[in-house]
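Lecture notes, unit on protein representations.

Consider one protein chain, 128 amino acids long.
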Amino acid sequence: QVQLVESGGGLVQAGGSLRLSCAASGRTFSYEAVGWFRQAPGKEREFVAAIRWSGDSTYYADSVKGRFTISRDNAKNTVVLQMHSLKPEDTAEYYCAAALLRPWSQDNTALTHAWRYWGQGTQVTVSS
């Protein structure tokens, strides 16, 4: 089993920044990719960003490109989602996910059912 714990959510004004962290523990050798998803009330969970644990490849949803950056700290088994220029439409519960994601592709990373392990989520609220 893999345990994922998100932190760093909160309330921020539009244009502000937040830094989300996903700490992994357990059988961390059983996955090689970590992703972030988000879900707003009444909407489906949607892909935000993903990184391969080797750090050599990342994918982003079009809606966050240029504003969000995903990175990993191998020594701490942590993946960070740095969010800048936040908009009210970024308001959602943000979830961290992990998987042996193969093939590693933009299309595959965007599929919620492709990810095996999920955290409990952290709320991000952006006020206008």
